[in-house]
User: Fold these one by one.
Assistant:
Number 1:
Amino acid sequence: MLSKDFWRGCRVLLTGHTGFKGSWLTLWLLSLGAEVWGYSLEPEGAPNLFQTLVLDKPSFGQFPGSLHHRIGDLHDLPALQQLVSESRPQVVLHLAAQPLVRLSYHQPLLTWSTNVQGCLHLLEAIKPLRHPCSVVMVTTDKVYENREWDHGYREMDRLGGLDPYSASKAAAELAIASWRASFCGLAAHQTSHLAISTARAGNVIGGGDWAADRLLPDAMRAVAAGEPVIVRSPEATRPWQHVLEPLGGYLLLAQRLSENPSDLSNAFNFGPLLEANRSVSQLLEAVFQYWPGEWVDRSDPEAPHEAGRLHLQIDSAYHELGWRPCWPFQKTVERSVNWYRRVAQGQNPLDCCLEDLKAYQEAMGCGR
């Protein structure tokens, strides 16, 4: 359960707050009453969820929390240090990244520098803090050396990655673990104030994602235009989950870290139940139950490598944090598709987000 008492007035530094997951997390934190200091690049594309919800405008005074909106780059260490000095965070949630596999083939150096060096810049910036701070560094389910197993990966399985994105995120895990071992502790060169965990989440879907080269946004654009959905890997399987599932996990992990920093400063998987591990074609067939359409196979054997099978074991999050996924696969698809369909019919995107958030919090259970 999330404690509203913990989050009310909590100073939170959130990187990547203008992205898809970051926008949803910003909205959730504001509704909980947190004081959010957001640091991110300008939101990409038009439309995008951050600007659609007008998260940076004074109208968000309707929520108990507040947002300090800052545009910046992870490569700018002095700017990060200044932000940490101003915000004095009690919680850090690091979501900023180059998150796309196919883009990483076109921009490998940017992918590596953002996903690895960016993590280290943030850790260096928060190192001087002299008060307790819970830090959740978000990576991905793709950090594991993919062997196309039928069973899920556990946190202790070997890290790896064939494509630049996956490899950069695996390298980030190693860099974070090394930094934590080197600089968290009681020695003269260490700090005792930081508790650092990493969070590895499966594929997320949900309303408001308009990124290029992602399955659900591509599908929603196609069906809205009355066109077939172009599919490049119909039999590839992923652990599909609603975006609110891992975000709730990040919040719960940060909260638990503040209570038990020594035992929880490690890695946690956040994924759906086994029944939600479906192929691309199965996901689309479920989508079409709520917004009719069709898909066509455009598989390209010469395309850059992407993993065929992915699945996570989530035992650690369940037993150590008390976290579990709340929405089954069909509910995840229904909520996601209906968001797009309702917005296409003229409904207010913010109202649609708040309805999903309320329904999910009721399923998750929030404390007082």
Note: Residues 202 and 271 are 5 Å apart (CA to CA).
Number 2:
Amino acid sequence: MTFRNEDLPALFHHTDRAAISRQRESTQATRAQLMLLVAAAGAAALPAGPAVGSLHLFGALGALAYAGVLAVGVRASRRRARPQWQLNRSAAEFIKSLAWRYAVHGAPFGAAGGGQDGGAAALYGTRLEAGLDELRKMGWQDPRAAGLVPEGAEITGAMERLRGRDYQVRRETYVRDRLIEQRDWYRRKTEGSRRATALWSWTIVLLTCLALLFALLGAFGSGPGPRLTALLSAAAAAGIAWNEVRRHHPLIEAHTLIEQDLAAMMVVMQTTITQEQWPSAVYETERYVSPQHTDWLARHSS
């Protein structure tokens, strides 16, 4: 039996799409602000250029770039793209984790959590609403309130079918379609972050070295002048800021640690875990892949 993202509730799919959309909006706003700041510095580094009356073209372009930075910032603040991205991502991952725990008898939805008599379904609904209520208090917009997702579809037929299978099938499905899939996702994210880190690190080093060279030349009265040095400094600062926004360094360490934890848990689940220990093992695995755990590791990484 297979269990994929397509088998998760519609509420997950809506929040997942919202998180992706808001993440794109947030990163595009930050990138636009940094590019406009560099463009403004570039306009300031150019000669006065052609003029229309008392208005100098390059000076006007620089002023427009600074105005654009302010406009993008005001729009991003009003749209609350970054907070909504994080809230929707937390909601999506919470729903996904809870659905998996319900489908494979993870704690608290094992035999002691209601079995097959409907008690587990009621407990699932209670836990789901309790978790989403905490997110609503922080500003998360529940799509069910706006009629974007139908009420009462929080448990899918695929979740019930997997829950009704025997222990061996549930274990095999969980290890293959959840644990290994998630481990591979962290591995891909780590590799992508390493490539991005190398690219931006070398770019920042190059820009800084050029700025240093021109500054040294300027100290001896030669070189292209301070304007180009200032432009290179602005570009290097923008690169550092972008690298910090993307959090490549801390996420590499966090994702690597989680990947190692999942690999170890995969071995344990396939060899030593008993049926009685299964609910708590699933619960522990889901704790590893929670956004809160990732953020905690990223904040405390060296």
Note: Strands lie at 51-52, 55-56.
Number 3:
Amino acid sequence: MTKFPGATGSIVFRNSDLPALFHRTDAIAIARQREAIAATRYQLLLLTAGATAVVLPLPPLWADVQLGGALAALAYAGVLLLGYRTSRRSAKSQWQLNRSAAEFIKSMCWRYSVHGTPFDDRSTESDEVFISRLKEGLRELTKVGWDDPRDSEPELAAGELITPAMRRLRAGPFGVRKETFIRDRLIEQRNWYHRSAANSRRATRLWSLSIGLLTLAALFLSLLHALALTGSATAAAPLAAAAAGCVAWSEIRRHQPLIAAHSLVKEDLAAMHTAMETSVTEAQWPSAVYETERIVSPQHTDWLARHRS
């Protein structure tokens, strides 16, 4: 644990110390993310299965009905059904909106708790400013489709937006707030971006290898057919469909652009960590916290991912 001059003790501040509204939006974001990703995964698998069923030498189901064609038709119908269900539930948009809401709440809570801009004033008016800014930001999200869980959950609407742990950290001396923010927020986020970039690199290697092997197999079978060494090249179709599915999955997961984006965020956080440890004064602290929260915001990461892809 890093020590700072003037610190009178250490306060551990975790996600569990954030208000219930954060936990609810975070849980919804995770659930909708799983739903959207699962729907896409099953659609790609069903498309590949349908392409495979058509070319398999399956016996007839009965007189005029081919088993392979029937299985393919069921697979394609499943793709359409999944697409319709996902669009009706708005799984992807609600995943992204709830993730934005959760990260916005977390960022505001951290800025309030450690005196980040605009909550660097010790007066009691900071509580009112915090609640006002939080409500204003969440109201903007509702304008673009976010479903505020407080509208359907009265107990959530009655919950406090400023927790006792947030007040306790805010009341602490500068050294304690600085130590807590660097350890439990900045370093924690830097480690998360490091792990995420490493996971994306592993996933990129795996999917690139899979795409390459499937495409090579399809190429080999097509060449055999072109040289009249085999009577049919139909076996290449499911391989090509599987390769296309791997390409689509890799693009949907955005592994490659996220590697660059998360690596840049990690570097920016490392630079901010050094500055906070060596040169940031108490007077500069509020703006330094604000800048750190800007760096880790989902909007900043998405901007980097788009421009580095």
Note: The longest strand covers residues 60-62.
Number 4:
Amino acid sequence: MTEPRTVLITGAGTGIGAACARLYAEEGARLVLVGRRREPLEQVARDTGGLVLVGDAACPATWDGFIQEVRKQHGGLDVLLACAGGHGLGSATHTSPATWADALRSNLDSAFYSARACLPLLQESAGNIVLIGSIASLAAGPEVCGYTTAKHALLGLNRSLARDYGPHGVRVNAVCPGWVQTPMADAEMQPLMDAYGETLQQAYDRVCADVPLRRAARADEIARVCRFLASREASIITGATVVADGGSSIVDVPTLAFTRLESTHAP
């Protein structure tokens, strides 16, 4: 019988991180759930049986104790899913030093320090790292300077880690979702709901109107992409960026006017 894998997930209390935990729990993985808020982590732990470690993934000082606990409880580590992240709102001239620092810390530092701490264990197991990026890793939305910059940098981290640690048996890949129905994205829908008097679903429909699949992803769909990249089926894939956005990043923006023209003149 194959030994269950040990999977450490940052940002495990909500959204994609929580979905990853529940998916891996179905296959009997031993889970380590990392996050800053105890209550949502403990809720996920009740569902999955995971080990809860409360702390900031972006703080290097927290990781010594975390890694000791992982080794003590499970003996090693097979997969790191770096799902922790945050906002970074505002254009450059409307981004304060504190907002800029927080955007880099929550979206980039959290991934870097998680990976750096886990790499010794992952080299022992020839394990995997999956970093959660965004379509903001590939293109710029309006007035999200800090978030866009941090998510772009995350792909550089992905490639650097894959290049340096591939010879040690560690694979590293990134997933770039588009809109995903999570508590964080729900909050981002609020200005549209207020402006247009729309429901949450109507707001999602509006932001996905030009997405080829015409919908946002579910968190469990992104979790399945992450699981694939960390599986034996993806054994030759490293340093890759897998875009899971319903096709939004393939749309030729300057031609959207023609699509709208066709819709306006449709019988």
Note: Residues 6-181+216-264 form a domain with the Rossmann fold fold (CATH 3.40.50.720).
